[in-house]
Amino acid sequence: xxxxxxxxxxxxxxxxxxxxxxxxxxxxxxxxxxxxxxxxxxxxxxxxxxxxxxxxxxxxxxxxxxxxxxxxxxxxxxxxxxxxxxxxxxxxxxxxxxxxxxxxxxxxxxxxxxxxxxxxxxxxxxxxxxxxxxxxxxxxxxxxxxxxxxxxxxxxxxxxxxxxxxxxxxxxxxxxxxxxxxxxxxxxxxxxxxxxxxxxxxxxxxxxxxxxxxxxxxxxxxxxxxxxxxxxxxxxxxx
Length: 239
What we know:
By secondary structure, this protein is α+β, with helices and mostly antiparallel strands. The protein has 2 domains: 2-76, Nuclear Transport Factor 2, Chain: A (Roll); 104-234, 3-Layer(aba) Sandwich (Glutaredoxin), CATH 3.40.30. The chain contains 7 helices and 12 strands. Strand 9, helix 3 (128-137) and strand 10 form a beta-alpha-beta unit.
């Protein structure tokens, strides 16, 4: 049902009343009952009166203290004229950063230089733009690149992704395939994290390969020149 709702609309959901309105636990229970096929990941009171943030299946929604209304769209803080903040966008990036950090075991890791800066990519081995992105990524220094294999173009994409993932040296196998067109020949059979990677990509609304994300959870597009990636990396405030 949630997929059918459009951003910027308000829906009266008609949740059943509870005994303790304003309780995050009660709101969680009401939301989970309303959307049983989607996991309620968190319920948090916002700084604004009677407004709660709900993260449902990776998507940010808002509801009132009685869980009677569901708001779908971006929440803007306009209290300071000229410095408005898109709170939904900021929170979405924060959630994306957390999810990406927790999922690095499902990615191919390549370290260049000191590896202090981080880039995440979602790629298909048969994606021409991904091969072009490879050239740009190899121009970067002092960066760790986590590549999530997202074989969405064909069965051959899945076969190649599995061969890379099952190789003894995944990073070398990926570089050989994307830079030189040499597919792995000695890989063993194993299970890959491809279903999890698909779920992760869909969580962020990624529509195709390549997709590039920064450590702060913000995306900078698909095929991005090295210069633009450098600028984006340098714009992130160290934590």
